[in-house]
Amino acid sequence: MTEVFTTWIVGNKVELSGALLGILYIFFSIKQHILTWPVGLLTSVLYIIVFFKSGFYADMGLQFYYVFISIYGWYYWLKGGDKKEEEDLPVRKITRDVLVKSTLATVLIYAFILFILIRFTDSTVPFMDSFTTALSIIATWMLAKKYIEHWYIWIIVDSVSAGLYVYKNLYPTVILFLIYTVMTIIGYFEWKKDYDKRLQI
User: Which residues contact residue 172 at a Cβ distance below 8 angstroms, ignoring those fewer than 6 apart?
Assistant: First the structure.
């Protein structure tokens, strides 16, 4: 039994490493810690390999985007937006204008990815893969900007993704995304607490 378990761990070491780093990534984002971004970058590199081998091509492409947005978020949290010297970038709520533009962008990204998956790949879950990928792109951008509403999107994405990964037998990743779902709920309330506290200052 031990030998079988050890063999399984060795055979899935990349996915397991990515899953563990992914949990750290969510933990740091809940805490609004700058390590969110370098840890997220490493997680994405590992999952490029995992998703390529599993045929989740949209998710694989998403990881390349995550590498880029991790670099952007890293810089933005350090230097950008409404950040003042010696202070963290503040949590904020999304404006109506940004919400409309984000919704439109999500629909366009979804349609584009769906077209690519159906036309050029052998994806077995093109509609749901496109759905979670499009939402993830927008949610990660919103995280970089520190819009509190990005947590709503992650709750949807993580719970749907967990079901998709069951279908693909990526069980460490299923566990990861179930943990993600719980942590995103916690993350929302932690960020809301911080947002409300700043309003009182």
Answer: 12, 15, 16, 19
Distance CA(47)–CA(82), nearest Å, equals 32
DSSP code string of 94-146: PPHHHHHHHHHHHHHHHHHHHHHHHHH---S-HHHHHHHHHHHHHHHHHHHHT
Tell me which residue range forms the domain holding 70: 2-85+93-200
List 92's β-bridge partners, or say none.
147
Domain count for the chain: 1
Q: What is the pTM for the complete model shown? A: 0.84
73-110, pLDDT tens digit by residue? 999 998 876 555 556 788 999 999 999 999 999 999 99
For helices 57-79 and 96-120, the axis angle rounded to 10 degrees is: 150
Q: What is the largest CA-CA distance in the chain?
A: 58
pLDDT digits (tens, 9 = 90+) for 43-76: 999 989 888 887 777 778 889 999 999 999 999 9
Q: Using CA of residue 156, residue 157, residue 159, residue 164, what is the dihedral sign?
A: positive
Which tokens hold the place of 139?
């949610």
The runs of H, that is alpha helices, within the chain are 2-11, 13-30, 36-54, 57-79, 96-120, 126-145, 150-167, 171-200
